[in-house]
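WARN retry 2 of 3 for item q-0093 after timeout on previous attempt; input resubmitted unchanged.
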Amino acid sequence: MTETKLDLQDIQGNVIKAYPRHGLPKGRYLFYQIDDGEAGRQFLQELCPHITTSAPWGSKAARNAPPKYTINIAFTYDGLKHLGLPQATLQSFPEEFAMGMRGRSGILGDDGPSAPARWDPIWTREGQVHVFIAINAADESQLETATRVVQRLARQSGAGVVLIRGHRGDGDADDLPFQDVSALYDDQGRPNAKEHFGYTDGISNPYFKGIMTDSSNVVGGGKVTGGDIETEAGWEPLETGEFLLGYQDEAFEWPEAPQPPVFAANGTFLVYRKLHENVGSFDRYLQTVGQQYPGGPEELAAKLAGRWRNGAPITTFRTQSEADGFAAEWEHAKAAIASATTVEEREAAKRRFSALNRKFSAFDYTKDIAGGGCPVGAHVRRSHPRSGLEFNVDKAFQRPDALSNRRRLLRRGLPYGRSDGRRRDEDNHGIIFMSLGASIRRQFEFVQQQWINYGNDFRLGNDKDPLAGNHGLADSPEGAGRAVIEGDPDRKAPPFFCANLPRFVETRGGDYFFVPSMTALRMIADGDVDPT
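OK item q-0093 returned
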C-alpha cells in the first residue's frame, strides 16, 4: 500500500483536528460581507499569518505548543466572486456549492418550520455572507482575544469588509454580531461531549490516509477489512480523496474540484447548519410514549438514537444495565490512568482504557441486520450505516460497509445556548452542525436527503430519521412522523411503533463554504488565481 503523506502546514487546522478534543471547548463564528474586492484581499493578506494549520502541536515548552485559540477561514461562492476569482475558476466549482444551501433547501428538506424564510436574519438575506471565520478557544478570555485580532484586521482593511449581524440569541434577540458556541459543562464545571437532548456526541470521526492522528483511531473510523473489528487488524484508513481535494477517493477517482489543480489541492468543502433542538417536545415524547414502551423512556431514547445517552452502542449493549455497567467500567479505567503510581501501572491502565474505549466505535451491524438491537431506522444507523445496508446474504460487495464508505463525513461544530433550566422548545439552544468532505452532493446532501429524510434504502418506505427527520405536522400540535422499533428475538421483545413524532430538530440557517489550503488562501489574497 502506497503511503499518503500530507503537507499538514498547507491544510487548515479544523480539517484534521476536532478542536474541542484538544482543550478548546469555546467557539465563536463570525461572518463577513466583502463590498470591495481589494479591501477583502488586503484583509486576507493580513489574516493569513494568524490562520491555524494542521501542523502537529508539541509540548507546552515547544515552539509549536498547543495554542490558546485557533482561527480558520472559509468562503461562499458569492464570497469568492466578490474577492475577484476568475470566471473560469468560479465556473469550475460544483453546482451545489454555487447554488448554496438556501438554493438547495428543497433537496435538504428545509420546509415548514425549517424553511429559509424562518432562518436567523443573517441567513434570510440571500448572498450576503461571503466569509466565515471560525474561532475556537480554551476559555472566554482567549475567545475575546482572538475576536479582537480578527476585528482589528477587518477594520484596518477599510469599509469594504463588513461584519454581518443577525444571529438569534436568548429572548427576542435576533441581531447579535456573532454565533457563540460552547461545549456543555457537567455539575463539576468540566466540559463534556453532550448535546441538548442529552446524548454523547462526536464519538468517532473518519480516519483517512495521511491524517497523522493516533493510528488506533482507525478502529471504527476507517473501513473494515474483514478481520476482527475490535482490533486495528480489522480496519484500514479510508482514501484521502473522500475528504481532501487533489487525492484519490474510494472509487480511485479524483473528486470534482475547482481549477487550477494547485488552487484546489488540500482544500475541502464545509457545510454549516444551525440546528435548533426542541428539547421540550423531546422530553414530553419520551415520557408519554416511554410509559407505553416496555423498556421505558431511557431505552426508547436509545432506540431512537442507536446509542444510549452515555454513548454506548445499543447494538452491542442491549440493555440499560449493560450500558451503565460498561460506562462505569470505562470511567474506572480512565481514573486508573491518573491514579497510577508507576510507569508500568500507567501503561497497563492506558491499554485497558484503550480496549474499552474502542467499544464505542468498534462495531458494525453484520450480526444485527434485522434491527433487533439497534433499529434499522435509528439516527446513528441512518447517518452512518456501516454494514447495515448489505441485506444480501450472498455478500454482494467485497466489503460489508462499501455502500456507506462514499458517504462519510468529518463532523465538527459545537452546541449553542443553554437548556439546563426550563426545558422549552421556544428557548435558544441547539447545535451548530458542520461537516467537511470532498463532495457536498455525494456526501452531506445524499445523507440528508436519502438517509435522514427518506427511508427506502433501509426498507422503511417514507419513514424519516426519528430524531433529525423533517416530520410533517398534523392538524394537532403533535407531529405526523412515525418510526418502527423492530422486535428483538433474543429478548422476546415484540415490535413497537412510534406514532405522532414531532419535528425535534429545525434548521435555523447555514450555507456551503470552500475551505482553501494555505497556498490557495494566499493565491486569493494576492489576486493570483490563474485557471489557464
